[in-house]
Amino acid sequence: MPRIIVCLKQALDVSQLKADPSSRKLVTAGVPRKISDFDKNALEEAVSLKEKLGGEVVTITSSAEDAKTSIREALAIGADKGYFVNDEGLRNSCTLATSHVLAEAIKKIGQFDLVLCGEASIDGFSAQIGPRVAEILGIPVLTYARSITVQGDTVTAERSLEDRYETVRTKMPAVITVTREINEPRIPSLMAIMKASKKEIVSWRLADISVPPEKAGEQGSGVKIMDVSAPKVERKKETIQGESPREIAANLVKALIQDGVIGR
Amino acid sequence: MNDHKGVWVFSENYELMLELLAGGRPLAASLKTELAAILMGSQLNDRATELVRHGADKVYSMDNPDLKDCHTERCLSLLAKLAIEHKPEIILIGSTKSGKELASRLAARLETGCTPDCVQLDINGQGTLTTKRVVYSGNAVVTATYLKKPQIAAVLPRAFEKPEPTERKGHVVTVDVKIEKSAVEIVEINEIRAAEVKIEEAKIVICGGRGIDKKEDFQPLIELANLLGGQVGNTRPLAEDRKWFTEWIGLSGKKIRPALYMGCGISGMIQHVAGMRDSQVVVAINKDPEAAIFEVADYVVVGNLYEIVPAIAEQLRKQLS
Ligand SMILES: Cc1cc2nc3c(=O)[nH]c(=O)nc-3n(C[C@H](O)[C@H](O)[C@H](O)COP(=O)(O)OP(=O)(O)OC[C@H]3O[C@@H](n4cnc5c(N)ncnc54)[C@H](O)[C@@H]3O)c2cc1C
Ligand SMILES: Nc1ncnc2c1ncn2[C@@H]1O[C@H](COP(=O)(O)O)[C@@H](O)[C@H]1O
Question: What is the nearest CA distance from A192 to chain B, expressed in angstroms?
Answer without folding.
Answer: 28
